[in-house]
Amino acid sequence: MKMFIASSLVLLTLPASAGELIGGTNTYISEARTWKTGEYAGYYVYDSKGTTVWEKGPLPDGAVECHGAGFWTPKEILGDGICIFGTSPDRWTVAHELTPGSNLWNAQDKNPFHRQGVWHVVHGTGRYVGMTGKGTYVSNELSDGRKTTWFEGDVEFAN
């Protein structure tokens, strides 16, 4: 009986979703500029271009470009930016943010490239006009230097 009650409580706390579940991987080449502001601290900007392959949901595979900026300190990396999916005239844009407190690291250790955060749809054109949605992402670096980001969440289409 106790297990049934615990399971019921977990189910009641899960968020309801009226949208389409999506999940996909961006793979891209990034160009970054950095400015050191102190020992183990600084500011960065980056531009990335590549492709997205969707494993979940109704979205077509295609082009993606991401742009962003942020700060790093001896203990944490902070930043935000945008990613634009698709090609004209059918494109949709998300704003993303490295969640404060979730990208902690020790600057004295070798830090593997690993970032995580949240995103939400901010704009759509063509068949994506009126699109809404939000979710999470995790980014890593591949052995060949390219970056990869797993996006997951829910989206709703107006059309």
Total DSSP helices: 1
Q: Order of helices and strands, N to C?
A: HEEEEEEEE
Class by SSE composition: mainly beta
**In what order do the strands lie side by side in the largest sheet?**
1-2-3-4-5-6-7-8
Q: State the distance separating the first and last CA atoms.
A: 46 Å
Gross geometry? elongated
Helix content: under 10%
Number of strands: 8
**% residues in beta strands:** over 45%
User: Sheet with the most strands?
Assistant: 8 strands, antiparallel, barrel
Extract low-pLDDT stretches: 1-17
Radius of gyration: 18 Å
List the helices and strands and how they pair.
Layout: H1 2-13, E1 20-38, E2 41-56, E3 62-72, E4 77-87, E5 90-98, E6 114-124, E7 132-141, E8 147-156
Antiparallel strand pairs: 1-2, 1-8, 2-3, 3-4, 4-5, 5-6, 6-7, 7-8
